[in-house]
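FORM 7B: Structural annotation worksheet

SECTION A. Query
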Amino acid sequence: MELKKPLLGLTLTELQAITQEHSMPTFAAKQIADWIYRKRVTSIEEMSNLSLGDRQKLCEHYEIGAKKYQHLYASVDGTKKYLFATTKGNGIESALIPHENHYTLCVSTQVGCKMGCLFCMTGKQGFQGQLSTNEIINQIYSIDESEQLTNIVYMGMGEPLDNYSETIKSIEIMTADYAYAWSPKRITVSTVGVIPTLIRFLEESKCNLAVSLHSPFDEERLQLMPIQNVYPIKEVIQVLKAQKNQARISFEYILFAGVNDSQKHVNELARLLNGLSAHINLMRFHAIPNSPLKGTSEEKLKEFQSALNKKGIITTIRASRGEDIMAACGLLSTLQKQGSA
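SECTION B. Predicted structure
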């Protein structure tokens, strides 16, 4: 028996290829997209403005392809973590962060991650596979708060620009008129700085960009982030300075006690980012098992923020959310859950 393919996660171009293949009217692709992304039907049979014959053709090979989450974890601070199963039997996690009237969803793009950052649970999990566009969009589509979402951040499990084709397709669906028609300003993509796809992203997307920085010094960053050996931060910054159309660039900077929290780091950050309109998000380190790293003190955190602000760099301290359910930055991992996912 043929496994039916999901329609959720297909772009208009891909839907047009399907309608052409099955000798359906050219306008049917937009109708299908409307039923899936706007009307949120649960079955092809509900697509009432398609002929019965066309619906039957679709039903033979396709399904909507939305899958409910397997488990929901709730934090005392209102954060929620959703566990989803993937088609290959693995698990992925998404984190929902409510704040007043805003609902931000942190989505995953890979099962695990190849980057191996010293401070990240997902990195310690290793890499188990790429997510399809269906599996990325399904995280947005299938959570309880789907229709209340105000922002999407690609900061969950995995490196989005290491799964570029599926990440950019999911962004197209989020921003295209035929689907959700979101403003790109509501979407932020995080990266450690995978230069070849970073260049493509800067050319092809108007979404916000967040770069994982964590140290302005080459050798120190290498100890924290092995990707520094392949794509040094100085080269990443050169790429960013050369771009013209990006909406907003921010830098993620986790403070580790006695590692990257001194005045010399402030000075070097100011030198490195000179000429770039940048915003730094300072983040608390969320301890992970068997890590030699420790978070800096609250006093030091505020001193570091003040010192950067004095250098003319807009710097904010990001609030930690969902730490009690392992949903805070750097804590997403499904290594122990894959047996039941």
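SECTION C. Observations
The longest strand covers residues 91-99. DSSP finds eleven helices and 14 strands in the chain.

SECTION D. Sign-off
Analyst initials: ____
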